[in-house]
Design a protein that fits this description.
Elements: H1 3-6, H2 14-26, H3 30-43, H4 48-60, H5 64-74, H6 82-95, H7 98-111, H8 116-133, H9 166-175, H10 183-190, H11 193-203, H12 207-210, H13 220-241, H14 245-260, H15 270-285, H16 289-304, H17 314-331, H18 335-352, H19 355-371, H20 375-385, H21 392-408, H22 412-429, H23 432-448, H24 452-469, H25 472-490
Helix pairs in contact: 2-3, 3-4, 4-5, 4-6, 5-6, 6-7, 6-8, 7-8, 7-13, 9-13, 11-13, 15-16, 15-17, 16-17, 17-18, 17-19, 18-19, 19-20, 20-21, 21-22, 21-23, 22-23, 23-24, 24-25
Length: 491
């Protein structure tokens, strides 16, 4: 090929460059992936999926500005393109604009409430705001993607407060879902955030202000309403969605422990521990495993120096800290040390006869074994946990993981049985994600057992769920498996 021919532009198709970019992204070669996506965009400049893909690469490389630009470009023709909304939220989050990230996570969640990505985005953005801002009364907002434009007197014209417009308040609640039944309940559920809600509602009185726009061109009224909508649905979200059953279980366990220590004086270290455990969990959720690990180890040293008198539930606290350290080490890939810490958690739980703590420890030990390929050990640990499992979501996950281990060991009948139990648990709670996972597991087990018609039925059910969830990768993989299985039926 001559130099002149090479200068004429791309020689391949758009889909080829997209596929090449996807492959490079999965290999973590982000700079090269950007080149492939950029070449693809010269062929189809407005392809929103390609823009989102390139935005993801920019996020990985720390180039938040370009990541945000690509995400916004993907939304130009379709403001409700959920992948673009999610990527815009991710870019804003990496820029540290947590408040605006929260708005877009929430907006995407309202459009696609079944997608876990938006649920987790809401969670991590809220935790980041709480951890970085702290008490609302002590906050001095800066003009850096936050709400400072609401009260910069040199930029905004002050007007006399006017009565809150009922139609606006009604609109804000329509954008959300259910509000607490009373102001007293609202205060209890929102805690310190209640002052934020009051402040935002007062801003709606300023008719000149709400006509203004942000740097990105959004109406301030829309931003305020979205924030109020989020606060109105905050508690409803946690109770209804349960994005990670284990985290919900652990937090419930922590709350129960602190409630038992209420009789202790205010100077008791309980508040210190609870605050730090929540920060440890938030750091891990945000992907900062090293920060989570360091903080957990520091708190562990402090707690180990306290007496049982100072902290009556010391064993429970130590177990929680060993669990946090183990989870951080798992994220960092140090499985041996992770296992040691989870075993310490289990030992303390057994010594003190703490059922929920034992369930948590068995859960994590099984995950370590599965990650390092010791499937039989994982099965033994998780089967010990089965009687302790609570709730449909936890059971759906647990049965699926046990079944997956059996499938790895080529024990196909056991894999099918546990897959069926997982599917039943998922059906009970109408969780489409775990219905998808369990259906695939059962289909694969039936295929290995030679029950091709049964396998086809379960693959078809899984395909329906993948389409409903708009999980393109799962859909493509299932369609391929389904074609191959149908060929077996006709032979």
């Amino acid at each position: 090929m001559s130099d002149k021919e090479e200068e004429q532009g791309p020689k391949s198709t758009f889909s080829t460059y997209m596929a090449e970019g996807d492959q490079l992204f999965h290999k973590r070669e982000y700079a090269k992936a950007i080149e492939s996506y950029s070449t693809a965009l010269t062929l189809q400049p407005d392809d929103k999926n390609c823009l989102v893909a390139r935005s993801k690469c920019y996020v990985k490389m720390g180039d938040s500005e370009n990541a945000l630009k690509d995400a916004e470009d993907s939304l130009k023709e379709d403001k409700n393109f959920f992948k673009g909304l999610y990527q815009k939220a991710e870019a804003l989050y990496t820029m540290g604009d947590f408040e605006f990230a929260l708005v877009f996570y929430h907006r995407g969640h309202k459009l696609r409430p079944e997608l876990q990505e938006f649920r987790l985005g809401i969670q991590k953005a809220q935790e980041a705001i709480t951890n970085s801002v702290g008490s609302p009364s002590s906050v001095k907002l800066e003009n850096k993607g936050d709400l400072s434009f609401f009260h910069k007197t040199d930029e905004l014209k002050k007007v006399r407060p006017k009565p809150l417009i009922h139609s606006v308040k009604k609109e804000s609640r329509q954008q959300g879902q259910k509000t607490p039944k009373s102001e007293r309940t609202t205060k209890q559920l929102l805690g310190e955030l209640y002052t934020d809600k009051e402040y935002l509602e007062k801003l709606l009185k300023d008719e000149d202000l709400i006509k203004g726009k942000t740097r990105g061109g959004e109406r301030l009224q829309d931003v305020i309403l979205n924030c109020i909508s989020y606060l109105d649905t905050r508690t409803e979200f946690w109770w209804q969605q349960k994005p990670i059953y284990a985290r919900q279980r652990d937090r419930k366990l922590l709350r129960e422990q602190w409630n038992r220590a209420r009789h202790l004086p205010p100077s008791d270290p309980t508040c210190y521990i609870l605050k730090n455990l929540e920060e440890i969990d938030a750091a891990l959720s945000a992907g900062n495993a090293n920060g989570s690990l360091k903080k957990a180890r520091d708190v562990l040293k402090t707690v180990q120096g306290w007496s049982e008198e100072a902290l009556p539930n010391k064993s429970e606290v130590l177990g929680n800290l060993y669990s946090c350290i183990g989870n951080a080490l798992m994220d960092l890939g140090d499985m041996d040390k992770a296992l040691d810490n989870h075993l310490k958690d289990l030992e303390l739980a057994q010594q003190s006869k703490l059922v929920d703590s034992k369930s948590r420890a068995l859960d994590n030990i099984g995950r370590v074994y599965a990650r390092i390929g010791k499937f039989q050990q994982a099965i033994e640990v998780w089967e010990e946990k089965v009687p302790l499992a609570r709730g449909g979501l936890e059971k759906a996950w647990l049965f699926h993981e046990i079944g997956r281990c059996y499938l790895e060991l080529k024990h196909h009948m056991e894999a099918r049985d546990y897959g069926t139990r997982s599917l039943s648990a998922a059906d009970d709670i109408s969780d489409e994600k775990w219905q998808l996972n369990a259906s695939v597991l059962v289909a694969q087990a039936e295929l290995k057992l030679g029950n091709y018609k049964a396998s086809v039925l379960h693959f078809e059910r899984a395909l329906d769920r993948a389409k409903l969830l708009q999980d393109d990768a799962a859909r493509d993989a299932i369609q391929k498996a389904l074609r191959e299985t149908r060929q077996q039926v006709t032979q």
